[in-house]
Automatic annotation (TrEMBL):
Origin superkingdom: Bacteria
UniProt cross-references to InterPro entries, sorted A to Z: PAPS_reduct_dom (IPR002500), Rossmann-like_a/b/a_fold (IPR014729)
Protein name according to UniProt: Phosphoadenosine phosphosulfate reductase family protein
Family: Belongs to the PAPS reductase family. CysH subfamily.
Organism from which the protein derives: Mariniflexile aquimaris
Bilayer-spanning residue ranges: none
Signal peptide, first to last residue: none
Amino acid sequence: MITQEKINELNTLYKDKSPSEIIKKAFELNNEAVVTTNFRPYEAAILHAVSVVEANIPVVWCDTGYNTPQTYRHAEQVIKDLKLNIFLYVPKQTTAHRDVVLGIPSVDAPEHALFTEQVKLEPFRRAMEEHKPKVWFTNLRQGQTAFRDSIGIFSVSKDGVLKVSPFYYWSDADLDKYLEENKLPNEFKYFDPTKALENRECGLHA
């Protein structure tokens, strides 16, 4: 859909632009878009920014089934407050069933790849196959992982989807201010069962 030369040009032109300007440009390129979320910390920012530009954009929530009660309550609040057009995707096996036959393997265990496939990668692939977006909004930011440091605001996913990260250069302090100005909640008791460390890549983006 888009050449690397064009990606480089966009990243240069939009490096200092606001999230709103970046989002509007992405919609100009193609309006077949989704925004993905897992309701981790600061996700309310991307959900607000995108829904202000396009209120009815499909919001894909891939729920691993292992979220904390605080995260589920936070998700319900954000969905209600922003009137999100939410599409929920969950693993094909229940958490209770998996707890008996597999549990949560450590990141070094041979079963970890299967676990990640079941709770994160398969639901995500299913979501993307159903929606078939040309544009994918995410809240990736520089400094989160080595891979994310290399991609820029605009990048192309391994499946050829234009990936747009409007807050790519923003710090936590910048996002704290954005949430406060827009009266948005935040939530830090988030648990990702596929990662032992915050700076570990989750598999969806690499």
